[in-house]
Amino acid sequence: MDMNKITDTFSVSPQIATGDMPALKAAGIRAIICNRPDGEGADQPSFEEIAAAAREAGIEARYVPVPSGMVTDADVAAFGTAMAELQRPVLAYCRSGTRSATLWSFREAGKRPMPEILSATKAAGYDMNGVARRIANGGRTPTDTGDAHFDVVIVGAGAGGISVAASLKARKPGLEIAVIDPADVHYYQPGWTMVGGGIFDAQSTAKTMGSLIPKGVHWIKAAVAAFEPGNDAVILDGCRVVKYDRLVVCPGLKLDWEKVEGLEDTLGRNGVTSNYRYDLAPYTWELVKSMRQGRAIFTQPPMPIKCAGAPQKAMYLSGDAWFRRGVLKDIDIQFMNAGGVLFGVKDYVPALMRYVEKYDATLNFFHDLVAVDGPAKRATFRVAKPETAPAEVTVDFDMIHVCPPQVAPDFIRVSPLADAAGWVDVDQATLRHKAFDNIWSLGDAMNAPNAKTAAAARKQAPTVAANIVADIAGRSAVAQYDGYGSCPLTVERGKIVLAEFGYGGALKPSFPKALLDGTKPSRAAWFLKERLLPPIYWQAMLKGKEWMARPEPLNVAAE
């Protein structure tokens, strides 16, 4: 246990264990404050377990959980109440100790000189300079005034964010627009399936962020900590405040690798891979090339996930490679799907099933990956079939391709913008926030019931841009999004089943059936995926050229 003393009566530490209580008692600690929410990490004891061990040692325990990356004024008040009521000395802990040190700094703001606060925390190993502005403001987040102000602020510079910025600039060049994103690199994520299939080089799917931000758009290279929509403010890490007239929220989603026990420790080795990460997709192809016999597992977690077809795309391309090399007969392909169907739009299932049969793949529905033991090459699944008691099964593997569980980013889930499930709450037609009239959202982080794909963002961006420009002009919404999404299912090298659909699974083909029947595998769809879609993404979508993506006029009944 690493206990870091800030004052004679207050210390902070990273996560503690139940077995640390005797040592804490011996060190004179009389009370503990837990600032880490339960369930944040797979190896984390619950607060109830910590509190029980503390009571046994005669130490009082208090639960003041604070989500990572966001310390609200209410959190500071709750921490202050706990500190006032508990006996000293007090130990506060979180994952690393930083949240606890931050809470103490904000509570002491106004009571101690700021240099003293910064010095005490630095001596304990925690640099609070990044939140000095908030300390100077008495520990409260100052959002009445901002460090900068823009006509439109866009959170997230992925496919949705850059496309909206470009579409807005094309419609209204004089707009002052800022895009907030801390990333140095922008990825063409739809290409990672092709990297994992040995078709694309990983480098072709990445470009520097600075080269893609539209001309005249300000890039704020920072992470978002919180939103204060009542004050039209976005709070950045370090407590800088950016004010807006209108806000667009599109930060993507969070790949929750930690939710699968043991997964992070073995990714990229022991035959454990995923096309959902840039650095791992090449490893998928290395495994496929070297495999000659054994069991290959492909997993799919509960919805929602981005590109719902990607887990089985990896399976098909791998099966095709083994088929072409003549080793497929010696490889046992197992598809483990937490859901109950192969694909959510039934029109495409017959074509997919023919490839499941071709590759002799076994479909295992209601199987949710919960743990991976890389060195032992074992995967554990929770099986929860309808009207059957849940159970766990462990399966050996030689190779496993994992699609991780996916959730909204932490700073979205805890914000006033989120619905009960943690996604940005929007009207599914206009993509305007249901509670805040000057906020819109698109891409993977919002809650419209569409497939989370780059093709969906390609249609959503012009809709949002058109509606924002109409709002600036004092008019109501003019455009609607029909739920369009596209999933080019790479069933073999050279052929694709091009799934295109909207809300409710309605088919939304882009081409006449005589030219391209999306419900059947075709070489034309493969040509589209391999040769046309990447340049369309880089040269059209991200530059505000709305080829085959013009916003659909709003049907008044849809509002």
Protein architecture, described:
The model has no long low-confidence stretch (mean pLDDT 94). The strands form eight sheets. Strands 6, 7, 10, 11, 12, 13 and 24 form a seven-stranded mixed sheet that branches. A five-stranded mixed sheet has the order 1-2-5-3-4, sandwiched between helices. It has a five-stranded parallel sheet with strand order 15-22-16-17-18, covered by helices on one side. Helix 3 (73-85) crosses helix 4 (98-108) and helix 7 (159-171) packs parallel to helix 14 (454-472). It folds into three domains: 4-136, Protein tyrosine phosphatase superfamily (Protein-Tyrosine Phosphatase, Chain A, Alpha-Beta Complex); 148-253 and 408-558, FAD/NAD(P)-binding domain, CATH 3.50.50; 257-406, FAD/NAD(P)-binding domain (3-Layer(bba) Sandwich), CATH 3.50.50. With 559 residues, it is an alpha/beta fold. It is 27% helix and 23% strand. The chain has 15 helices and 28 strands. This is Sulfide:quinone oxidoreductase. Pfam families: BLH_phosphatase, Pyr_redox_2.
